Amino acid sequence: MAANNSHLITVCSLLLLFVLPSMAVQPKYHHAPTTPQKKSDVVVEGVVYCQSCKYAGSWSLIGAKTIPSARVSVTCKNSRHQVSFYKAYQADKHGYFYAQLDGFKLSHGVLDHPLQACTVKLLSSPLATCNVRTNLNYGIDGAKLRSEGKVLRSPHYEAVIYAAGPLAFRPETCSNHHG
């Protein structure tokens, strides 16, 4: 009987060592290690040109030159066709604009997606010799965005970049369509 008691004591001791700690009350507030949130941006990029007089009225950019500091706008509308985002952007010295849509919100994943909801329009050209808006790529009506699969990634940042087709102004007067 003594052997059985010692065996019972050993089994109980093992139970106390392994089972009871796992049944212990866990702290009420358990804090998981926090990882920094990844910042995500939606970006629209494009280039603004001065269209050659020779090709005025067409969608050709042959002989076109970029317009430094040209201004464009990005407008996004929600699924109810209400403006949900609007901002003007200025192109750099090469006519290129990189428009971070700070504050843009998706309230409906498909209908409010930038490809369906956002357009880019020409606003102004700083060149007195080339300041008439053209509808090349719908720069007057609103150029739709397209996805080219561009994404910038880093450990704490991601930017999904959509493209607006090239946009263009033209000279007010074109003598003999040479230029």
From TrEMBL:
Gene Ontology CC terms, in alphabetical order: cell periphery
Residues making up the signal peptide according to the UniProt record: 1-24
Keywords: Signal
Protein's name according to its UniProt entry: Non-classical arabinogalactan protein 30
Domain of life where this protein originates: Eukaryota
Organism annotation: Linum tenue
